[in-house]
Structures
1.
Amino acid sequence: MQASALAHPNIALVKYWGKRNAAKNLPAVGSLSVTLDTLHTRMTVEFRADGEDSLVVNGAEAPGMMDRVARCLDQVVGLGRLPAAVTSEGNFPIGAGLASSASAFAALVIAANTAADCGHDRLALARLAGAASGSAARSLYGGLVELDACGEQIDLVQIAGANDWPLRVVVAITDDKAKPVGSGEGMIRSAKTSPFYMSWCVRQEEDLAAAREAVASRNFALLGEVAERNCLKMHSVMWSSRPPLVYWNTATIACMETVHALRADGHAVFFTIDAGPQVKVVCLPESVPMVVEVIKETPGVQTTIVTGIGDGARVVAS
Ligand code: DP6
């Protein structure tokens, strides 16, 4: 009745922002992401005959996150399940716009499914992870992943494998503190108050189609154009929400300028930014040393993490 699983966070190049059904946590828009390789969350779930649910995150009790974890376990295993002891360990900051909830819930559903021998397949587990955190559904798959939000339930497809296109992501950490407003709350605020929210939703399919085409033809320049445009549209929706959702700091903007300067110098590189101040710089392997060098020198950047493209969530030895 115990199992461990490991999952990587993923970074959306066409973003999920908005919920069609908040109770079921169904996204209002489709999204397209890359699963990373260096960063990970490892979850161990043990179902016990007695006691209460418990959650330890990076060595400390985390009662504040227990409800969301318990609800996810209920959905995977069923309401009559045994109490669970859950332990989570990650190698990167939580809640700072680095998709820690994506890797956490992806690893959680895999570990719980194995520990309780539930027999769900990967798509069913992705849907269960997505009910806990929309972006987590994508971390069940490796490589480049598209999440389709058109039907009654989400659908996911891997559109390129982890080794099919050697993309690299240089993450610029500009502030590793947890964000002031969580993504879920932010999305609900944007849907209620941003004058741009409706057109964000309506125009998403155009960006998805262009990104899909860019991946199919391995067209880096096109992927970069779509990803930066889509990211800035999402942040326009955030900024125009009331009260405004501004996740950037001055270093975030400085990094964007650095990326533009690199591109003007002929480097194949683009940025994307989620609900936090970190900047993810996507490039090809040959540009990594140059990107790291100039991003590190950009004022306000604390540190950088270099990642490649990783595999989907999987069971690992306990
Ligand atoms: C900006 O998946 O964290 O990173 O479903 O409410 O848990 P919930 O939201 P979450 O939102 C991620 C938002 C984003 C964009 C993206 O990853 O697509």
Note: The helical segments are 66-77, 100-115, 122-132, 183-193, 197-216, 220-239, 250-264, 288-297.
2.
Amino acid sequence: MTEQNSQNALDKRVETYYEAINWNAIEDAIDKSTWEKLTEQFWLDTRIPVSNDLDDWRKLPQIERDTFAKAFAGLTLLDTMQSVDGAEVVKHDARTPQETACFNNIQFMESVHAKSYSTIFSTLNTPKEIDVLFDWVNTNVHMQTKAKIIDSYYEAEPTDDMTPNEKKMVGLRKKVASVFLETCLFYSGFYTPLWYLGNNKMNNSAEIIKLIIRDESVHGTYIGYKFQLGFNELEPAEQEEFKNWMYDLLYQLYENEEEYSHLLYDGIGWTDEVLTFVRYNANKALMNLGQDPLFPDTASDVNPIIMNGISAGTSNHDFFSQVGNGYLLGEVEVMNDEDYLIGIDRK
Ligand code: MN3
Ligand code: MN3
């Protein structure tokens, strides 16, 4: 081949079959800032020395251990769902190639979340206790109801007779289901480790939960932002109809959460405070989606011990020196709402 022929061969063009992702052509700066936030806060459960909680664990009354373990079993089911279905279905509606990359990270971290509870179980519980816990969560009516409602939106497919906007709404409902799950429904379970953290007990298990909450704050903000881009493209009448559906769904989920909280927390006397915390987070989920709050509850209504647990400062330095490998990830900082504003202007 002459040099000219070889150049001609290199320049030969065909129709594009598959397009390469170009991070130098960013369509939405939020994708880039989210990717940076997601990757800088990467963590693994195996780096947290949960066995340091064993002294606290052995001193807990049986009813508290039982509540703790069941709360974590419930969280395991929800994070399993997010790792298998939630992140996957939302990814399919990505508006940009960089958004797909962000969801690849999110989906992997959901698997880390789901696995991290098992790290806690294997440290605190016997194999027989673990079997009983998984059997409980896989057959409990309120957990299964919660999963069924959310999954019905994840699995929904547009049909041929739908208008383009109706098809778009099928995708938007997946985002709403995901944000309601992650910013609200997890919190009936998160309450327990945060309560212990606020009381300076079970700190390493709580550290895992704080890392998960930090991830979920980014997921909720990002998915909520992508939701709003699509929602703003709907006609005003469609937006109204969509809003009604959204509030009905949240209320339906909240009713199930009430029953679940009674079942889990009546024995220990925490139900009312758990539900205040759930309502406070339900409002946060709506805020992520650019909507007005549903409940009157604010941060000042939540048990200060829980808010104290949420806002407890960094403990990563200690943890990582305890595992003695000098492997320092991003520090867990004091949790402020502003920390999760990944460059998105909230109204
Ligand atoms: Mn998760
Ligand atoms: Mn998530």
Note: The pocket of manganese (III) ion (ligand 1) is lined by residues 79, 82, 110, 113, 212, 216 (CB under 6 Å).
